[in-house]
Design goal:
Blueprint: E1 4-13, H1 15-31, E2 46-54, H2 58-70, E3 79-90, E4 93-102, H3 104-117, H4 141-148, H5 150-153, E5 162-169, H6 170-178, E6 184-186, E7 188-196, E8 202-210
Antiparallel strand pairs: 1-2, 1-7, 3-4, 3-6, 4-5, 7-8
Helix pairs in contact: 2-3
Length: 211
């Protein structure tokens, strides 16, 4: 790790979401076989906060997150899965997610996390802040900028809760996103802190708590 670590404080979904995410990932791989499987380097999750934090402060970050978890009733956090959506990451290919609607308790949780982590946050993260693998040796500019501006660009009223499920061709996504989507609700099974990889993937678990 460099002087700053790119972290994702995320909610681990229950089995209801996990099974749906894995099924969707199969559809993505049928479209882009060289994409990624949902595995130890690409865990299905709902991001609640991404930040660059000082690597030397990681233990203090973990303590702050744990204190936040202990201070709320995690059983009241609930999500409703609503649809597939994508973001074009390269010509003709989209990074696809199941978009979910968070309950008000989820937004309160995010606000508390932002305040808890703020004393340890930094700016100017580089590729050294991320997990890099042989399959993904580089970190694209979009990822670097996304994490840099997560607060406020993607938090609070701008928060789009989602579970990333893979890469697919845009032509295939037209069909996938047009298909009827059966909405469902699910809850947290745990909270984890991960070091991020390229495209905002949860690449390396740093610590986790069951809830």
């Amino acid at each position: 790790m460099g002087e700053l670590t790119a972290i994702d404080i995320l909610i681990n979904p229950d089995e209801t979401m996990l099974s749906r995410a894995k099924a969707a990932n199969g559809r993505m791989l049928a479209s882009v076989p060289q994409g990624f499987e949902l595995d130890e380097h690409h865990q299905p999750h709902i991001t609640t906060l991404q930040r660059y934090v000082r690597t030397a402060d990681l233990d203090q970050v973990f303590d702050a997150v744990k204190k936040t978890i202990d201070g709320i009733e995690m059983s009241k956090l609930e999500f409703t899965a609503e649809k597939f959506a994508h973001m074009e990451t390269e010509p003709g290919v989209g990074l696809t997610a199941i978009v979910v609607s968070p309950g008000p308790e989820v937004l309160d949780f995010q606000t508390q996390l932002i305040d808890a982590v703020k004393p340890h946050a930094g700016n100017g993260g580089t590729a050294d802040s991320y997990v890099r693998t042989e399959a993904e040796p580089d970190i694209n500019d979009a990822t670097l900028k996304y994490v840099e501006g997560y607060v406020p660009d993607h938090s609070g009223p701008n928060f789009v809760a989602h579970v990333t499920v893979g890469l697919a061709k845009l032509d295939d996504l037209k069909e996938i996103e047009a298909d009827p989507f059966d909405t469902f609700t699910f809850s947290p099974a745990g909270v984890s802190v991960y070091q991020l990889g390229n495209n905002g993937t949860a690449a390396k678990q740093l610590t986790t708590w069951s809830v």
